[in-house]
Design brief:
By secondary structure, the protein is mainly alpha-helical. The protein has one domain: Up-down Bundle (Four Helix Bundle (Hemerythrin (Met), subunit A)). The protein has 4 helices and no strands.
Length: 128
């Protein structure tokens, strides 16, 4: 399970990086806190951070339970794919929000697999 923990922490560190980019964008585009709107470019950075936070909420328990009930190695690999997908999503969204689709898909699909796998794995233990 250590490999799953490390992979989850990689996702958390990526999120921290996105939060730092929001701080950078605040300065660059003159959007003072607590405002979360005002300049379209800033809003792109902010949406990347918020969308990633929304994805981390189900990712962490799904990855942990998948690792526990199905496979730690596969769980960590799926979290790694999620991290790559989020990086792709961020780069695309910041350049042109209309091009965020592939990065979103590459991060959403592993999340779905982890969630369904965790449920199936836990269900298997409960039922058998």
């Amino acid at each position: 399970m250590e490999i799953v923990a490390a992979a989850i922490m990689l996702a958390v560190i990526e999120y921290i990086g996105f939060a730092m980019l929001v701080g950078y964008a605040r300065g660059r585009y003159g959007v003072a806190a607590p405002a979360v709107a005002g300049h379209p470019e800033f809003e792109r950075y902010f949406r990347v951070q918020q969308n990633t936070l929304e994805m981390l909420v189900p990712l962490v328990p799904s990855a942990w339970l998948f690792g526990l009930y199905v496979s730690a190695g596969w769980g960590a690999l799926l979290v790694g794919v999620f991290v790559v997908g989020r990086a792709w999503y961020a780069a695309a969204y910041i350049r042109d929000p209309q091009r965020r689709g592939p990065g979103f898909g590459l991060s959403f699909l592993p999340l779905v697999i982890l969630a369904i796998g965790a449920l199936a794995g836990a269900g298997r233990v409960v039922l058998f």
